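Need tokens for this chain, all 134 residues.
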Amino acid sequence: MRKTLTAAEAIAPGKLTKREHFRKYFLFGMRRSRMHPHARLVGHDLMWRASHATGQMSPNLQPSTQDLALATGLTVGQVDVALAALHSRGWVRFRVLKEGPRAGQRVSDLVIPAAVLEDIRVMGRKHASNRISR
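Here are the structure tokens for all 134 residues:
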């Protein structure tokens, strides 16, 4: 039986194991999410800009809302709403740089919410047991 998570625990960043690949799990989670298609589109675009292993985006490669609008074909307003949805559901985390030439700049990173990561793991175990039992 699975533990019931509080809302804060559910959207907290999940912790990947050494055998789990960030980009694969992020992509699968995005595809399964029930978010608006615009939010998923922006999430996919950000995924390709982020590190495939960690989801962190380099401070000098942070896209503006105008960049994301051009890349996705959405308006700047739609991108703003999509980013807010991604943040409120735990897919994007904002942090402020503390050192270096960009100190004080707010940057974003991608994360996989804990509840989504657990669902992906459960599905993977079910899929693995189906393959073995055939």
